[in-house]
Amino acid sequence: MAAEKTIKYSRQREAIVNFLKGRKDHPTADFIYRHIREDYPNISLGTVYRNLALLEELGMVAKISCNDGNEHYDPNVEPHYHFICRDCGSVLDIEVSNLDFINTLAEKDFEGKIYGHNAYFYGICKDCLKK
Q1: What is the CATH number of domain 79-131?
Q2: pLDDT tens digit string along 90-110?
Q3: What is the dihedral of CA 59, 60, 64, 68, to 10 degrees?
Q4: Contacts by 48-52, CB closer than 8 A, 24 or more apart
Q5: CATH code for the domain defined by 10-78
Q6: pTM attached to this predicted model
Q7: Which sequence spans correspond to the domains of the chain?
């Protein structure tokens, strides 16, 4: 039986978790770092990255790569969809009816078993449309 990994408590990690709680805007590590520094001025960007990697490993956050050169972090690890604004680059949760039929559709021409998928929707967010 594998031993459970014991994680030492960290105020900085707790601050990162609390900062991410309930967010739907999927901030980057740099954005998180800039805001966490307000309460922890000695925190380094490397510490933020290490803690985000650990939180991802523990299944507490999801890392989203959206081809903008940055990794975005999502506290919602349940399956859901994302919208990426082509103008401002924001990454937002999007409510979409169940698209699980895509797995069945993809399996028609695939010699294997598909258990899930990722889908990104691209366009212009409501804030950019107002400009």
Answers
A1: 3.30.1490.190
A2: 899 998 887 878 888 999 989
A3: -140
A4: 48/12, 48/16, 51/10, 51/12, 51/13, 51/16, 52/16
A5: 1.10.10.10
A6: 0.81
A7: 10-78, 79-131
